[in-house]
Design goal:
single chain; about 350 residues; alpha+beta; 4-stranded mixed β-sheet; 12 strands; globular
Length: about 350
Amino acid sequence: MAELSSNSFEFETDSDVIEYFITKGWTDGLPIIPPTIERVTKFLETIPNISSDVIGHEPVKNREITVEKIAINAVMAGCLPEYFPVILKTVESILEPDFDLHAITSSTMGAGILTVITGPIASQIKLHGGTSVFGPGHRANATIGRAVRLSIINTTGSNSNQIDKATLGHAGKYTWCITENSNSPWASLHEDRGFKPTDSTTSVFAGLSPIQVSNHHSQEPEKILRSFRDALFTIGPNQGEIVIILCPEHATHISNSGWDKTQIKDYLYDISIRSNDDWNQGSYAPSASQGGVANDTKLTNVALGPDAFTIMVAGGNAGAFSSVIPLWGGGSRSKSITKVI
């Protein structure tokens, strides 16, 4: 059995472990699986060829983030050892400077880490992309997302009561890991980003709370997508990236009309525009830098361009409910990251 470098503790019962970890602020408030040496070692054995024990650094405090620490948190989350390569690459992704992890975790805006796993590994570890895709009931989804969150809590030098300054937050801050629906009529997310179909990837997004969009009455692409307009306006103007989750029913209708993702992006961009005067009636003011000019008729889009929309298909095959997911900092300060697993 491998020797671990982390501090060790002795307890009489698992209940004692759980209560101690909760008291120390080392959990998300839920019970954990005690990370024994034997359990942690099984996770480390899934990656025998890793070149370094350090996978990155926390960007502000410059703390080393090690493979062993991530393994401990993966055990605590209830993961299976075969999930560990996915978790490791996901944590590596959120440590990229462009993701801006410190700002996300300390901001009042309340982002959660949305992890999207695509490629062959998703089915191999039984990730779920269908019915109630953001909901409970699937071990891989629930525990991988939770492992990422626990890793943030326990490797950045702040316990769970200190790291999170969100005004409201949302349930995705506990765990938020999905894959795409296998019935998608279009290429997967990682193919859109230039990876091969046979690649397995993890993508991370600093996601704010999802906004559900309903349209059960239309089959024409224009009418379906116009349903997204008001949801997009709640986000604010000049967004660098917006995630659009199309349910299979909406995706099928749009695809059957011959539309591809490029046409969807172009249409969403064209319809999500209004005057700065209208924007100024809410909490976002494109003309604020000019003093918030009254009756400003200049038009400003929700997004910086059509390519700001990231389109995915996920969710149950029944029900015409899709979702808009805004990103922290407008998707410009925190950029989504995709890496090969």
